[in-house]
What we know:
The protein is of the alpha+beta class and 266 residues long.
Amino acid sequence: MGHMNRRFCFVVLLILLIFTPVNALAEEEESSNKEFEVPNHVLNISKENTFPNSTEDQEVVEPSELTQELIDGVDAAIENPDLIKMLNETSINPSPIAFGYRGMVYIGRWPLNYKSDETNINWEYQNINTNELNNIGGESEKKMQYSQQNKQEVKGALTNKITNPDDVKKMMLLEAQDKIKLPLAYSTVIGQNTKKENAYSVPAKKYGELQAYAPAVNERGQVTFGEVYFQLKGSSKSIVVKNVTKQGIGAWVPIQDHVSFSFNLK
């Protein structure tokens, strides 16, 4: 009987071990999804925008079988799409170098990966427009709507200097896109005369002001850099990474075709 009890306890423990982390993960994911939900005062203007923004969809570069083997043999995670692409192209053909050849080929200092520490959205990243309606001398309520006065370009950027900024920006954008299911790009435009149907009431004897803002994602984390070498031993190849360093980095990435509104009566 004791043996049966022990076995039963073991099975229960196993079930608990299997299911506990899943529930914790599910709760964590749910809370992080809520964090990135679009608030009511933020509206999608993709249909109304008089300037057609092109999406900055990053090409997903899959490592070839040989590249994957090379990457797996390295301690530092290699996730830089440009480096993976280069390794794919370089390692297509088996090395024509004779057996017995030994050597190290330096292929540069590269940003290897980006690890995110924090992702936040500032829904009022940049003020892009002000509409006003003066009803102070009025006898009855009036309605006002959003109408974009001038074309506005909203630009994102890295918050500090770093080598290989384009590679780093690409990795940070991919990380932010993975978390936030909204269109992201380092540059987005709101065209002149872009309008939205929703109306705001300005009562008699009041002055109405409607401010419009472009939102952006603030991504913060660490980039790992390393010197990358091809190591050749006879017909076998491997990758060696030396002098690994880390650097903290931040970036602002605008959210395309979304406008945040703030309506005030005076």
